[in-house]
Amino acid sequence: MPVTHSQGTRIQFRNLSKVFNNNKTETLALDDITFDIEPGEIVGIIGYSGAGKSTLVRMINALDTPTSGEVLLDGTNIVGLPEAKLRGIRRNIGMIFQQFNLMSSRTAAGNVAYPLQLAGVPKAERTRRVQELLDFVGLGDKGSNYPEQLSGGQKQRVGIARALATNPSLLLADEATSALDPTTTQEVLDLLRKVNRELGITIVVITHEMEVVRSIADTVVVMENGRVVEKGSVFEVFSNPQTDTAAKFVATSLRNTPDVVEADDLLAHEGRLFTINLTEHSGFFTAASQLQADGGSIAIVHGGVTTLQQRSFGKVTVRLGGPAEAIDRFYTTLQATTDIEEIQR
């Protein structure tokens, strides 16, 4: 194991704003952002292009300066600190990039060794540390390979090893899997989970892909137009999104409700269609049993159940037939305990 931390970095944003001035035109990139990231958390920050995600990351490692507000790392406000102090703080922050940012003239081992050279680590210790890190990311036999000899997933593993070289307690991943295929993406996300689990490092993942958040994050922060519009556990946001933006992102990952084409096909058949939220307290099965006892029929025609953070939730679309009174009773019963919506022709 390359390093052990008792806990990662705590990040606190306080009334953080950033205004860019371009040709006398002001753009509000961050708008009064206040929230906390706890030590050892994996936080997914998601939003569409222009939401302010990457600008927010640049505030964490002080590569950009806010117009107003504070960024506190373990209680220290880094806004306005002199560059000499910021260099020391940045050594505690690892960065993983979308395009890997490896030096083509250096081997995998040479890329991982580079930040250790900058830190003045003696050669023997560098060699030992580099091999330890390459073993940790599953590339122990690839140290002599150059980037052009590595696959995209292997390049990103080298990038992760390099980010861990200086024993950071905070890791920032800015669209780190956007250039990878789905299988390789999952392998990289599994590795980041391992980093968090075994080393205790706080990880901030910037992404526009909800599947990435679903796979790795503990907490989700949804951004839109420079503001945080929603924040909660992965389970809370996926099972019950509170904003249109979050709901649209969740829909791209879960696919548990029929789209327009599927709904049209389902409506072509006899019966009434309802989409129902399934939760621990939805009462779906009790209501379904009562419907059948009242002479009605029920068939599940679409849906899915997901388990996140050891809790399950989902949606089903059902086709109901039989007496109108039985169907109305089913609807009224469920309406009292969960979300139910009829799909109309």
Strand-helix topology:
Layout: E1 11-22, E2 25-37, E3 42-46, H1 53-60, E4 68-73, E5 76-77, H2 83-90, E6 93-97, H3 108-118, H4 123-136, H5 152-164, E7 170-174, H6 182-199, E8 202-207, H7 210-216, E9 219-224, E10 227-233, H8 234-239, H9 244-254, H10 260-267, E11 272-278, H11 284-293, E12 297-308, E13 311-321, H12 324-335, E14 340-343
Parallel strand pairs: 3-8, 3-9, 6-7, 7-8
Antiparallel strand pairs: 1-2, 1-4, 4-5, 9-10, 11-13, 11-14, 12-13
Helix pairs in contact: 3-4, 3-5, 4-5, 5-6, 11-12
The major beta sheet can be summarized as:
6 strands, mixed
CATH fold group of the largest domain: Rossmann fold
Described by the principal axes of the CA atoms, the overall outline is: elongated
> What structural class do you assign from the helix and strand content?
alpha/beta
**Percent helix:** 25-40%
First CA to last CA: what distance?
59 Å
Instruction: Estimate what percentage of residues fall within beta strands.
Output: 25-35%
How many structural units, i.e. domains? Answer: 2
Task: Give the C-level CATH assignment of the largest domain.
Answer: Alpha Beta
Alpha carbon gyration radius:
25 Å
Low-confidence stretches: none
Strand order of the largest sheet: 6-7-8-3-9-10
| Average of the residue pLDDT scores | 89
How many strands? 14
CATH superfamily of the largest domain: P-loop containing nucleotide triphosphate hydrolases
- Count, helices: 12
CATH architecture type of the largest domain: 3-Layer(aba) Sandwich
- What pattern of helices and strands is seen along the backbone? EEEHEEHEHHHEHEHEEHHHEHEEHE
